[in-house]
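Customer escalation, tier 2.

The customer says the design service returned an amino acid string that "doesn't look like it belongs to this structure." They asked us to rerun it and document both sides in this ticket. The original structure tokens are below, unchanged.
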């Protein structure tokens, strides 16, 4: 399941929902929770505005998750990604993956978040406490990591 929403979410509730859906089918669950942080060590972030392409965004995240289920023994997955104006330390993204074995769940979860960062159509504008604003550029290290997943 993939959800893109403006509202905050309860990570514990999402984990429980995923666990209930795979009861008896999965021996492991791996979750990832991402937060708004300072993108530059020398500045203080006030907020992060996430813009997305509705419909296309959900489709791309779904395609990423489907690739993960083909590559690893995934029982189920749940991705919730927020958009809009998010304050410093707010939650941005939840990724949960269940599998029969922990190794498969870890790999699938890591792949999903790595691919999501580089392939999902989100644009991020950071606002600093001093009022400066700038669009956050994609990091080459993230691009390289996703390319490595896709090559293997």
């Amino acid at each position: 399941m993939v959800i893109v929403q403006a509202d905050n979410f309860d990570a514990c509730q999402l984990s429980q929902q995923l666990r209930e859906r795979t009861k008896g089918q999965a021996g492991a669950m791996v979750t990832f929770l991402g937060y708004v942080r300072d993108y530059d060590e020398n500045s203080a972030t006030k907020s992060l505005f996430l813009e997305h392409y509705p419909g296309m965004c959900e489709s791309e995240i779904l395609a990423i998750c489907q690739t993960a289920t083909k590559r690893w023994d995934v029982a189920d997955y749940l991705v919730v990604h927020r958009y809009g104006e998010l304050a410093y330390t707010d939650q941005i993204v939840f990724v949960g993956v269940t599998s029969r074995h922990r190794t498969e769940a870890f790999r699938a979860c890591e792949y999903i978040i790595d691919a999501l960062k580089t392939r999902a159509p989100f644009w991020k504008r950071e606002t600093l406490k001093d009022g400066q604003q700038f669009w956050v550029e994609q990091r080459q290290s993230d691009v390289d990591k996703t390319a490595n997943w896709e090559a293997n």
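Tier 2 assessment: The sequence is consistent with the input. Residues 102-119 form the longest helix (18 residues). The two ends are 25 Å apart (CA to CA). Sent an explanation to the customer and offered a walkthrough call.
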